[in-house]
Amino acid sequence: MSKYLLPGVLVVVPVVVALLGPLFASVDTTKDVAFLLGGGHLFGTDFLGRDVANEVLLGGRSLVITAVTATACTYLLAVPMGLIAGMTRSRLLDEVLMRPLDVLLALPSMLMLLLLAALAPGNMWVLVAVVALINLPDVVRISRAAALSLSTRPAVEAMRLQGEHRARIAVSYVARAMRRILAADLGTRLTGAVYLAASASFLGVGVAPGASDWAAMVDRNRTGLFLQPWAVVVPAVLIVVLSVGVNLLFDRWLRNRDVNFLEAR
Amino acid sequence: MIGYVARRLLLGVLQVLLVAVGVFALTEALPGDAAVTRAGDNPDPAIIASLREQLGLDQPVWERFAGWLAAAVQGDLGTSLVGPRSVAEVIGSAIGPSLLLAGLALALLVPLSTGVGMLAAHWEGGRVDRAITSTTLGLYAAPEFAMAILLVTVFAVQLGWFPPTAIGSSLIANPALLVLPVLVLLLRPICSLSRLIRAGTIEAQRSPYVQHVRRLGLSPARIRFLHVLPNAAAPAVQQLARTADWLLGGVIVVEAIFVVPGLGTALLDAVSARDLPVVQGLALVFACTTVLVNLGADIAARALSPTSEVGR
Question: What sequence ranges are listed for the domain ABC transmembrane type-1 (chain A) (predicted)?
Answer without folding.
Answer: 64-250
